[in-house]
Specification:
Elements lengths: L2 H10 L10 H20 L3 H10 L17 H6 L7 H10 L14 H7 L6 H10 L14 H8 L4 H11 L14 H6 L2
Length: 191
């Protein structure tokens, strides 16, 4: 299915506004649009990816049925160790900034996911997510980790700058204990 076919099919059925659409067909259509955006992102077809999100901005924070990890397009975008160009990330997030707050099945926001793959070449993606949703700096995932705990555990290039950025936003994070009872400095020293 091409983007044009998907958009036309969606428009012809009147499902965009949901006025007379069968709810189950709307869900299936939305699943197809999600798969189209996901595949475009993973296959680095960035123009198509941004176009799909422009037409369906709610896809960025959508958790697809049957996805056990409940990762949104926002999570997938943040978790790339080789992220798209900065402009693509900004265009995507600006379509639906609230998607930066959505958590996956482990309680990770996209900022947590960006911290997990942090390196010098994707630091800008981490910083974009932090700027769009500063409150994510104070969100604990299912293991009790803040993004700061994750950054402290990586020791990767760029982790010092990322840690400073997180502390500028949420200075109390330095003393927060995770589920294992460890603060970010404890985590960092054990690496």
């Amino acid at each position: 299915e091409t983007l044009i076919d998907a958009r036309d099919e969606f428009a012809e059925g009147g499902e965009r506004d949901g006025a007379d659409a069968d709810p189950s067909s709307r869900r299936i259509d939305f699943e197809a649009k999600h798969a189209l955006a996901r595949d475009a992102l993973l296959e680095r077809r960035y123009e198509e990816f941004v176009e799909v999100l422009r037409d369906f901005p709610e896809l960025l924070g959508y958790k697809p049925d049957g996805d056990l990890e409940q990762q949104t397009i926002g999570h997938l975008l943040a978790a790339r160790p080789d992220p798209p160009p900065e402009g693509i990330i900004l265009q995507a997030i600006s379509q639906d900034p609230t998607a930066a707050a959505v958590t996956d099945f482990l309680g990770n926001t996209p900022l947590h996911r960006a911290a997990m793959v942090l390196n010098q070449s994707n630091l800008y993606a981490f910083e974009i997510y932090l700027k769009f949703h500063r409150a994510s700096a104070a969100v604990r995932n299912g293991a009790g980790d803040l993004p700061l705990h994750i950054v402290a555990s990586t020791g990767a290039e760029g982790s010092d700058e990322a840690a400073r950025d997180l502390l500028d936003v949420y200075g109390k994070g330095l003393t927060v204990r995770n589920g294992a009872g460890r603060t970010p400095p404890h985590v960092s020293c054990s690496q």
